[in-house]
Amino acid sequence: MSRQAAPDELLDRMEYQADPLADATIAAILGPWDAIAPPSATGTLQSMHADHWRRLEAVNRVFAQWETNRGIETWRADASVPPEVAGPLEAYVRQAQVLPAWADHAAIDRAEQLFIDHGVLSCTLLFCASLPECYVVPDLSEVLHQTGQLERRTEYRIRSTAAMVFPLMMRGGLNAPDGGGLAQVLKVRLIHATVRHLILRGSPQEAVAALGSQRKVVGAGVVAPMPASTAAAGDMHHALFIHGWKLGEDGLPCSQEELAYTLLTFGYVFLRGLRTLGVGLERHDEEAYLHAWNVVGHVLGIERELMAETMDEAAALFARMQARGRAQPIKPDPRPELGRALMESMAKIIPLRIAKPFPVLLTRQLCGPATSRDIGLDQHVSWWSRAVFAVCLFVISGIDRFVRLFVPGFSISRFITRLVGYQLMTRFLMDQTRPLKLPEHVLQRAHGMMNGWGNDPRAPGWLNRLEARCTRGRDAAMAA
């Protein structure tokens, strides 16, 4: 099926389709929610459903054990895991860790090499393109807003995303025993199922069955919100549980359509960003990169018919999904808060005041005016910052075009965005002094990639030497 002509019938159906394997796993672990009612003075949310929260805490403890692909393959629950949690998780791991029969390992290897070649640059594109595009779809942004994952814990959320992307796309992330990508994806898949289960306060499949023919009907399938005062402050599980949802109008949270859209932000949007920066890949390399992310999508439980195999297919599918998301009414709109929180986190690491708006300006350049308006990045930026940014773009683009006539592979824009990406990577991924602790094998591989960062295979030797000196200076400053 051509993704250029993804029918509305398919996308309408995928709004109400989730992930049966992961959803059944979480439902089996938690069991039924008996006597769901707003807590009163005689009982808090924590006390009324204490067993459910205890089981979710046990799942989180198990996640800490899932670090490598080899560990996932041989994982069995130990005595510390309650039996009602151990059985469903063991069954889930056995089924979910298998790559699809259509996976092309040569294409995956090529995608991993491309990521290594562009690894530091990819940080810039992750923060200034992929994540901003994620916030455009209202249902996705609403869940993030209600759980406080961006506004109150911005850097933690960014680092969590990077902690999934980097193990996946570094060498052997999906198919080597010592890789860590498969383990990370299996965690994320269960997190998505947990979000659906808590928001709907039960099985998504049962909720859709109960909805019957009332899909897209206003007022149908409403899960009533609970007072915020009933939840423990800062508890994400409680925040999801009390949130409420309009199933008839909005479809499922973390539906197949939303998961497929998010997948495109990591594959297609990254490749589109390279093109925008003037360092796009050859067609066969772009398709290898999309294929690797499609394999990731399979492990995440995404339906094959929602995956794009070429950039044209991806562009058409992405545009269709984004247009459908924009058509959803949403009041109040949480997206500008999410966009501002992301931009402010990046601005903090930029020392020059005049350059602090550059993440906003670069995001506008990479994502376009519509996305910029959606996430509140159309606010005023000082004329001086805009002028400096515009002059830099004009001069860099002109120099690149001219010098490439004589020195193939020359790119100052690539050099600068790699410098920015290096700072983002050291700030958000490598800093272990804050709550998110990455597995040691992930840190070792990331350090290895960063140590080889100065060897840009598409740049002349003198520019590589300049890059290496810049990174050594940055490392020395951080150590001091």
Task: Describe the structure in your own words.
This protein has 480 residues and is mainly alpha-helical. It has 2 domains: 3-326, no CATH class; 350-479, no CATH class. Helices cover 63% and strands 1% of the residues. The chain has 24 helices and 2 strands. It has a two-stranded antiparallel ribbon with strand order 1-2. Helix 2 (20-30) packs antiparallel against helix 6 (83-96). The longest helix has 21 residues, at 383-403. Residues 1-5 and 472-480 have low confidence and may be disordered.
| Rg from Cα | 23 Å
Tally of domains: 2
Question: Which sequence of SSEs, written as H and E, runs from N to C?
Answer: HHHHHHHHHHHHEHEHHHHHHHHHHH
Number of strands: 2
Give average pLDDT, whole number. 82
Fraction of helical residues: 55-70%
Largest sheet: 2 strands, antiparallel
**Global geometry:** globular
Summary of the model, kept short:
By secondary structure, the protein is an all-alpha fold.
